[in-house]
Design a protein that fits this description.
heterodimer, A: mainly alpha, MetI-like fold, 13 helices, about 75% helix, about 0% strand, B: alpha/beta, Rossmann fold, 4-stranded antiparallel β-sheet, globular
């Protein structure tokens, strides 16, 4: 209908060609965002705001309850946290935990690397790994602790054993899934230039599967940290050199709830630090930069 | 001089349920400096044939010889350019992607390789995108990087598997022109797979027409005289019609709906 109208009004529509207008006349194509626009969109700023709100709720509830044995306030917790931080107790406990964690994490990664290499190399290797993962991944690491105590006795070796268990399967499974997801074209372009064996894995498969591998590392870290703190709660490692879990356990025995809170706060802070500083930095410099993950 | 000889090649591959014969007793030979196009509808095994020349699969019958030597495995003397954009390594910049094959094969010294990589990037007009990661490039640009990467290594033969099929029509036309002007400068040998009749006539100096299910040789045509300048002339149309006939009037009449663009 409208087409017919246009036609009848103009009779015929003439053809034309024209030079494009200078883009300068269109106005700014890009405009920098204002300060307030940028700060409101900033992820760190938003996360800080969430934390502030949570802290305010915490403080308000604790003051209303007014029972520091059950629920100490934020200020009280921070006070205790600061006291134990400055007298070095918390630092020592954390270092003890971290050392055990580092050993367990490293061993777990090495084993995961060995298993996935086996799995990539042969079909039977893949079957071995997927069967083992299916068996052991759902098994809570803590459930192995009694057994570990019988095998390795009280002390670091038992902790390392359960940490390895919690890291190994998560990392191996994710790496294997990552390797499987590498596009055929990318594999072929690697083989095209004559890459084989370890060089092929190192130069093509690992970087191509990196988003998956990194996810595995993150999950493995979270499992390991969780397992370690829980295991330390069960037994304190050789008395004097207890970790952060033991610090919480001791404080609970003394009914010193603010110290328990300070210990929990430390566990949370370390978790946040590793996640949002270490892993975020790795992500920003690899998978985000490469456009493999948004 | 004969560079590539394919003699009576039969290719088969297994799907979970069937054994598929992709090509049956295919013969052809590619000379130095040829722009040799394999043309056929889907299901004629042309991509499988290219993979076999690339060394990614072995023929069940017949032989594939490069400079008289049998093809046994993939190698940098036969650089492949794929249709998919995933062929670039997302964790490397344009420059690093182009450099990578030269670094891995150690065909050139380090300083030579850097120089060649830069020159190749310059040739495909991507100099200003040298340090950018592939995910920020358009499809056409990614394809140009893949071509630069393959050319920089100076392979005996360039294998192109429907390289422009995933591009939009305008970019595709520009890429065909670019490829031809690169060939004018360097006179490399290229084996090019396509399912577009027009692209085959424009890009190719010789066309091997395959029939489908399984792929068998239907004709070999000389199309060296056709280019963008005479695309509108009757001879070009006649050649196009002739190929059309070879592909579709295979005993029975069929509507030409499958092959277009």
């Amino acid at each position: 209908m409208s087409l017919a109208q246009t036609k009848s009004r103009n009779g015929e529509r003439p053809e034309f060609e024209r030079e494009p207008a200078q883009s300068g006349a269109v106005g700014d194509i890009e405009r920098p965002l204002s300060f307030s626009e940028r700060i409101l969109n900033n992820e760190t700023f938003q996360r800080m705001m969430i934390l502030v709100v949570l802290i305010v709720i915490w403080e308000a509830y604790a003051r209303w309850l007014n029972n520091s044995l059950l629920f100490p306030s934020f200020t009280e917790t921070i006070g205790t946290f600061w006291r134990d931080l400055s007298n070095g107790i918390l630092v020592n406990r954390t270092i003890t935990s971290m050392r055990t964690l580092a050993i367990g994490y490293a061993c777990g990664l090495a084993l995961a690397a060995a298993f996935t290499t086996l799995a990539v190399a042969s079909g039977i290797g893949t079957r071995i790994l997927s069967t083992l993962t299916a068996m052991f991944n759902p098994l809570p690491a803590i459930a192995l602790l009694p057994l570990a105590l019988i095998w390795f006795g009280l002390g670091t070796p038992s902790l390392v054993f359960v940490i390895i268990h919690s890291v190994l399967w998560a990392v191996a499974l994710n790496t294997l899934i990552g390797f499987r997801g590498v596009p055929e074209t990318l594999r072929m372009s690697g083989r095209n230039v004559g890459l084989k064996g370890a060089r092929y894995v190192g130069l093509i498969l690992i970087p191509a599967a990196f988003p998956s591998i990194l996810a595995g590392l993150k999950i493995g870290w979270a499992f390991a940290w969780r397992t370690l703190v829980a295991a330390e709660l069960v037994f304190g490692v050789s008395s004097r050199s207890g970790g952060i879990g033991w610090y919480i356990f001791e404080a609970r025995n003394d009914l010193d709830t603010p110290t328990v809170f300070a210990g929990l706060l430390t566990v949370i802070l370390i978790g946040l630090l590793v996640e949002s500083v270490i892993f975020r930095t790795i992500e920003a410099r690899t998978v985000n930069l490469w456009g493999m993950q948004r | 001089m004969i560079l590539l000889e394919v003699n009576g090649v039969t290719l088969q591959y297994k799907t979970p349920r069937h054994l598929v014969t992709a090509t049956y007793k295919v013969d052809f030979s590619v000379h130095q400096g040829d722009r040799y196009v394999i043309l056929g509808p889907s299901g004629c095994g042309k991509s499988t044939l290219l993979k076999a020349v690339g060394g990614f699969m072995a023929p069940v019958e017949g032989s594939i010889l490069i400079r008289g030597k049998a093809v046994a495995a993939p190698g940098p003397d036969r650089m492949m350019v794929f249709q998919e954009f995933e062929q670039l390594m997302p964790w490397k910049t344009v420059f690093e992607n182009v450099l990578f094959p030269m670094k891995v094969t150690r065909k050139f010294s380090r300083s030579d390789a850097v120089e060649r990589a830069n020159a190749a990037i310059e040739k495909v007009n991507l100099a200003e995108f040298r340090d950018i990661y592939p995910h920020m490039l358009s499809g056409g640009m990614k394809m140009r990087v893949a071509i630069a990467r393959a050319m920089a290594l100076e392979p005996d033969i360039l294998l192109m598997d429907e390289p422009f099929a995933a591009l939009d029509a305008l970019t595709r036309r520009a890429m065909q022109q670019d490829l031809l002007s690169l060939w004018d400068q360097l006179k490399f040998t290229v084996l090019f797979v396509t399912h577009s009749i027009e692209e085959a006539i424009l890009v190719g100096s010789r066309i091997l027409v395959l029939s489908p299910h399984p792929g068998r040789v239907r004709a070999e045509l000389d199309t060296a005289k056709f280019h963008f300048g005479n695309i509108d002339q009757s001879e070009f149309g006649a050649m196009s019609k002739r190929i059309h006939g070879l592909l579709f009037d295979d005993g029975q009449k069929r509507m030409p709906e499958k092959v277009s663009a």
